[in-house]
Amino acid sequence: LALHIADPAEEDFAFTEPGEFVDLETRQGLQLDPVVAMRSYRAAYAAHGRAVTEIFRGCGFAHLHLRTDASPLGALAAYLARRAGKA
Q1: How many CB atoms lie within 10 A of CB 6?
Q2: Chain-wide mean pLDDT for the chain?
């Protein structure tokens, strides 16, 4: 089972004020107007999520998406019930 844990800000991209967005891995900054970039960002994020899911499935893994603003217990319980054939 591969767990994908996402912060709501990363997923929803609901920013409204222009500013510098910094990549936490490379520390590279990008000046951006998020209102202008929102549609493209969300489309790219969704496409990336689909690609990751397909990669995991191709390797024989289930892929469970979780958000940091919600308890993981419900999603994990539902996954385990499906796996056990009870849902």
Answers
A1: 15
A2: 92
5 touches 71 (CB < 8 A)? no
Cα 57 from Cα 50, distance rounded (Å) = 11
* Side-chain half-sphere CA neighbours of 11 within 13 A: 11
Q: Check residue 68 and give its pLDDT.
A: 94
The pairing of beta strand 2-6 with beta strand 63-67: parallel
10: tokens are 């990363």
The two three-digit tokens of residue 55, written as one number: 């990669």
pLDDT digits (tens, 9 = 90+) for 12-51: 999 999 999 998 899 999 999 999 999 999 999 999 999 9
Q: What is the CA radius of gyration of the chain?
A: 16
